Amino acid sequence: MTRPRPADGYQVVTSAAAIWLVWSAWYAAWALGAPLGPAAIAYLALPAGAAIAAHAVHRLIRDVSLDPVARRFWRLVLVAFALLSAGYAVLAGAAFRDTSVLPTMPIPAAVLAGAAFLTAMWGVARVPLGITNRAQRRRQWLDRSIALFGCASPLFTFGLGPMINSPDGWSTQTLVLLGLSFVLAVGGITKVSYIAGGPVDRVAIRLIGMTGLVGAGVALLAVTGGAGSVVPAQAVVLPIAPLLAAVAVRRQGASTGARPRRPNTWLPYLAVAAADAPLLAQLPHHQLTLAGRLDIVVAVLVNALVAVRQFFAMRDNSRLLREKRASEERLRHEVTHDGLTGLANRGLFRDRLAAALSAGDATVLLVDLDDFKTVNDSLGHEVGDHLLLAVAGILRSAIGSDGLPVRLGGDEFAVLVDDPTIDGEAVAQRVLDGFAGPMSAHQLLVRASIGVASAAAGTPLDTVLRDADVAMYAAKQRGKANWVRYHEGMELPVVGHARLGGELRRALDNDEFFVVYQPIMELATYRVIGVEALVRWRHPARGLVSPAEFIPAAESTGLIVPLGRFVLRETFRQVAAWLAEFGPDALQKVGPNVSVRQLHDPDFLGDVRRALAESGLPSDRVVLELTESAVLRGPQVLDTLHRLHDMGIRLALDDFGTGESSLSLLRAFPASIVKLDKSFVDGIEEGEQGTPEAAARQAVARAVIQMAGALGLDTVAEGIEDATQAERLRALGYTLGQGYHLARPMPAEDFHQLLAAQRAVAA
Ligand code: C2E
Ligand code: CA
Ligand code: CA
């Protein structure tokens, strides 16, 4: 559509209105009551007004690109007004020819005006209703019939009827024209009440329809005022039609197209009321009996009551409908929003992100609260909930209309920015700034780490989310309370360790770690003589996590230092308690594992001393298990190891045989015990006759025991899984062993029972 030029239509409207106003004011002030002669001038307004209307419609068709249906409608309206202005011109001519009498409508004028009405009716009739089903069509015809009969009755009673019977002798052509214009009006109005929107503007078509009512207006004025009022009636009322047309043109020109609306519902009521009017008008007639009058009143009353009842039923219906829509809306909201904070939930977030990515670029911010778990657990869930609400508030005000704030669950939030002109980093900074002050009634300081990732249209949703996740963990690793934008390759060093690192810190705060104990036994007697302490992580979601999974992460993030400190203290406390209960001979050694990172820590010796002092465990019971790689870490570590040795603590070389320099190591390093790695125990039951690999392993096991014997070291064989293995190792000279066959790592209570049972047997 080319841009409509509303100014054109507007000018037409204003000039038409101005002409009409000046005309009727002048006429009312001067011509009314004047002799008919000068009054003939009044008739000039009729062809002039119709011509202006025709011109306005012509400009509309010329300047505005219309839908074919609308174009057809307006062409017919143009023809109608052209015909009307011709007909009125003839009428005005007649008025000037003989200024002494009231002009009767000349036949050619009546034919032209009649053709004009029929053309307009045809135009209105051809506008499609957009009704698709039979129920709608049925209702539509019913309503239109009600309107037609309802309005016809007063028009006839108060207008045409008196005109036909009047002594003034109205010409047939005038009466036919009035009837026609009336039908056009009712047809147009009832029709438009069913047009829900479409190419022809609904107000415009209604205005065109109303031009027909002008005829009814003339009839009413003429009948009430008698013959003397015909000229003013025609001169003042008839120009309203072109004015209406001009306004209609303006509406159509500015119309933005279909805007579906509910069809009218008041029309039938209006018609019922209209039909009652002539009935009531009968009341004053003298010849009516009292019973007759009563009949009329009752009929009108019943009509009114039925209408009222109808009206209330309709209102109830629409209220029910509104309520149903509202509850549907509520339900939709509940499904797509978080109950606590009212923010969008994960499901809605994913839907919206997918939609955004299929349409264009999108940016995602993942917002994770630092240390929220600590707050939640130490201060309770109520405080936690307040905090989450405060966080939601911060997000809302920091983001404004630049994005969608989301609660993904727990203490994880997100923001979706789907407008590529908005800078996601600026949004992230605003969110961080929002966190800068103390929040909630408890003045808690919680900070957030934010990962920012942008993706081009078509990127898979999970890729963007993973990128943002990686960036978020990078932000956490850089020391919390900041944001990091994802860049290519960022995940390589970060993913895994950093993520676990974050979780480990939280787990430490939450006491999710505990120690299990695996007995070390005499192979000959299956008597417990020592114990290895192994750490476990009871993850709230994942359950028990193996140290093989998280120890490397703990080491790379440095968290092994506090974690190892916890294991030392916990183990020493526990073993000291057992020694107190079962006597100093119950356990000869207790072995916690120690990482190289711990040995590097300047406080390590202090930690060990404190743990010993606190628990009261004698240092000669302690065996620290170290791996070969841990020991090969330069003079500082070696110094630490010597100091430990000087304190009376023994050192065990773990996983012995798997490294490259196991033997040479034993000279530099004050070890007392070697633990033969499980890989040399596996398959040892096959003996010398087994596979070449099994034979080789057995050879190593034999070499290790011989070497240990030569150097005066104790040995423990690890990972013994069946009796044959135990037997074989014993035959090779191993006296101590550890493994699932002997006992699995177990919680402290189970180990306590084992010791109790053992004491009972000894007694
Ligand atoms: P590790 O020091 O060699 O510990 C022995 C591992 O072998 C333990 O696994 C134990 O459960 C498992 N094991 C014992 N007997 C058998 C058996 O008969 N068959 C099999 N298949 N496995 C057996 P876990 O507890 O998963 O520990 C894995 C490693 O994690 C440990 O190897 C140790 O290097 C490390 N680790 C465990 N706790 C700590 C700790 O508190 N601090 C440090 N720094 N490292 C630890
Ligand atoms: Ca170990
Ligand atoms: Ca080991």
In short:
The protein has three domains: 6-255; 346-488, Alpha-Beta Plaits (2-Layer Sandwich); 518-758, EAL domain (TIM Barrel, Alpha-Beta Barrel).
Radius of gyration: 49 Å
Strand order of the largest sheet: 2-3-1-4-5
Mean pLDDT: 83
Percent of residues in helices: 55-70%
Instruction: Describe the main β-sheet briefly.
Output: 5 strands, mixed
How much of the sequence is in beta strands?
5-15%
Low-pLDDT stretches: 1-7
Backbone shape: rod-shaped
- What is the rounded distance between the termini? 105 Å
Q: What is the number of beta strands? A: 14
Number of helices: 31
**Sheet/helix structural class:** alpha/beta
Ligands, deduplicated: ligand C2E, calcium ion
Number of domains: 3
Description:
62% of the residues lie in helices and 11% in strands. The protein is α/β, with parallel strands linked by helices and 763 residues long. A five-stranded mixed beta sheet has the order 2-3-1-4-5, sandwiched between helices. Strands 6, 7, 8, 9 and 14 form a five-stranded mixed beta sheet that branches. It starts with 5 loop residues before the first helix and ends with a helix. The protein binds ligand C2E and calcium ion (CA) (2 copies). Residues 532, 593, 625, 654 line the site of one calcium ion.
